[in-house]
Amino acid sequence: MTETTKFGGPENDLSNQKPGETTAFLSSSSNLVSSEKHTERVIVITSGKGGVGKTTTTANLGMSIARLGYRVALIDADIGLRNLDLLLGLENRVLYTAMDIVEGQCRLDQALIRDKRWKNLALLAISKNRQKYNVTRKNMQNLIDSVKELGFHFILIDCPAGIDVGFINAIAPAQEAVIVTTPEITAIRDADRVAGLLEANGIYNVKLLVNRVRPDMIQKNDMMSVRDVQEMLGIPLLGAIPEDTNVIVSTNRGEPLVLNKKLTLSGIAFENAARRLIGKQDYFIDLTSPQKGMFQKLQEFFLGED
Ligand code: ADP
Ligand code: MG
């Protein structure tokens, strides 16, 4: 292992947090997620088409999962349009990126930024600009391995748009993927292409998130329903997020939607998708369940009743 592939140090170990540093959520035993042996999940958030909501999804899923007590690392692998830091309100704290680690300019703990609100959430940007990007698949893999060693339960990689080198590097360390699409034919076609590429690269655990859904347009037959999109792609559905101006408000504030005290429909939908992703089925919209909880009603709102 070369100097540049060995990252980290004891100061990175989030399991060393003092109890007071964590939130009440984390220190309450019922919600505490054990730091003992666990399998970390590396999930790439991808789409093919740009501007469909990958970064929004990464920020909100990451924040939701962190609030559920897991240690979460978010990796901003979108070099050209790096904005995960903005969505999380951490832009002033990005001093180093993974490129600096690869070049031997800093250690992993210097580039890994811990969220102030949820200390079990961390952000790592791969590069600040396209000119300074010569990351290889191997670099990416080593980097994620080092992040894994720090004891994170979930590592979410925000993938760049397109299917070129940035995409190939971003998917390299992942075992799972969330494909984000909008209910538009161009985005769906790109999502389908990406699904094929993921499979060709050995990523078979893939879930679909349909974003910017407009029930009013679906009703008028001006937009494909979530069910139609899901059936076209044949990928299991993780969630459906409505079009919501609050997404823009939260982006500008640097506060992911799921942090709002009064959750909006989109915030509930992201939380729901996060719970589904971690496998807490009891909280989820269950299409087959005869009970109609709030979440099922929400699902019906998007999918229509059976
Ligand atoms: P990507 O990372 O795929 O390029 P972003 O997450 O940056 O996409 O989202 C692109 C734009 O769409 C942003 O301006 C964001 O605020 C907006 N957006 C994303 N999801 C929604 C939504 N559900 N409702 C309204 N606007 C959204
Ligand atoms: Mg993005």
Brief synopsis:
The chain is α/β, with parallel strands linked by helices and 306 residues long. The chain is built from 13 helices and eight strands.
Account of the protein in words:
Keywords: ATP-binding, Cell cycle, Cell division, Chloroplast, Nucleotide-binding, Plastid, Septation. One of its GO terms (cellular component) is cytosol. The chain has 306 residues and is an alpha/beta fold. The termini are far apart. Helix 2 crosses helix 12. The protein is globular and about 55 Å long. The chain has helices at 24-27, 54-67, 84-87, 98-102, 108-111, 137-149, 165-171, 185-200, 215-219, 226-233, 245-253, 265-277, 294-303, and strands at 41-46, 72-76, 113-114, 121-125, 154-158, 176-181, 205-213, 237-242. It has one domain: 3-Layer(aba) Sandwich (Rossmann fold). Bound molecules: adenosine-5'-diphosphate and magnesium ion. Magnesium ion binds next to helix 2.
Biggest sheet record? 8 strands, mixed
- According to CATH, the homologous superfamily is P-loop containing nucleotide triphosphate hydrolases
Name the CATH architecture. 3-Layer(aba) Sandwich
Tell the overall outline: globular
Low-confidence stretches: 1-32, 282-291
Proportion of residues in extended strands: 5-15%
